[in-house]
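in:
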C-alpha cells in the first residue's frame, strides 16, 4: 500500500510545479451525517467522512481515509491544501495549468472528464480520470476549490469507476471553507473583473 501512496502523492504535487433551511431540511442534513466524523485541514476547511473509514495523516501534508481497512486501494480518500497553487480555480488559465500537470503525470491513463460544481457556495472544479499504477487501472474523482493560501483538494481513488460515488458526493457537500478564504476569493474575483473591464 505504501507503493500506492508513493505513486499518488507525487502526482498531486506534480500539478503544483506545472502550474436558509427549513426545520425539515435541517433535520435531513443532520441525519445524512449521523455516522460521519468531522476533520479540519489546518485553518482552511473542514469536511466530513464516514466514521468507520480508517484515518492516516502520517505524511503531515496529506490526510488519507480508507474505506477498506484491509485493501487501501479500494476507496482511498486524499485531502490536502495545495499551497503552491496560484490564481482562482474558476480562472481558465489557472485551472488549465493544473490539468496540464495532471496529464503530465506518469500514471495518468486518460478518460478525463471535467465539470463545474459548487463547494460551500463557491465555484469549484470536479474532474475524474484513470490512473495506471503497477499495471493496475484505478479511477480517481477529484474536486479543487480555493482556500486561504492555495487550492483545497479532495480526491477519491477506487478500483472501479463510480465506486462510492454517493459517499464522495456527500463528502464534497460537507466541505465548509474558512470564511476568510471565501472573502479573499470574492475580492480577487471582483478585482479581476474590474481589471478585465478596464482593458476592454
Amino acid at each position: 500500500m505504501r507503493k500506492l501512496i508513493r505513486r499518488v502523492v507525487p502526482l498531486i504535487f506534480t500539478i503544483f510545479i506545472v502550474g436558509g433551511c427549513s426545520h425539515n431540511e435541517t433535520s435531513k442534513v443532520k441525519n445524512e451525517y449521523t455516522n460521519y466524523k468531522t476533520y479540519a485541514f489546518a485553518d482552511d476547511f473542514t469536511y466530513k467522512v464516514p466514521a468507520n473509514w480508517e484515518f492516516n495523516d502520517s505524511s503531515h501534508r496529506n490526510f488519507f481515509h480508507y474505506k477498506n481497512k484491509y485493501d487501501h486501494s479500494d476507496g482511498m480518500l486524499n485531502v490536502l491544501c495545495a499551497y503552491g497553487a496560484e490564481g482562482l480555480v474558476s480562472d481558465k488559465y489557472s485551472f488549465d495549468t493544473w490539468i496540464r500537470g495532471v496529464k503530465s503525470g506518469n500514471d495518468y491513463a486518460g478518460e478525463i472528464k471535467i465539470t463545474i460544481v459548487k463547494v460551500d457556495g463557491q465555484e469549484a472544479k470536479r474532474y475524474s480520470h484513470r490512473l495506471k499504477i503497477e499495471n493496475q487501472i484505478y479511477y480517481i474523482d477529484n474536486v479543487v476549490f480555493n482556500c486561504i493560501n492555495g487550492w483545497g483538494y479532495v480526491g477519491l481513488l477506487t478500483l472501479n469507476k463510480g465506486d462510492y460515488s454517493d459517499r464522495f458526493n456527500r463528502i464534497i457537500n460537507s466541505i465548509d471553507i474558512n470564511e476568510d478564504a471565501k472573502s479573499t476569493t470574492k475580492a480577487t474575483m471582483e478585482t479581476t473583473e474590474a481589471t478585465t473591464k478596464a482593458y476592454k
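note: The helical segments are 2-17, 23-32, 92-104, 165-174, 179-198.
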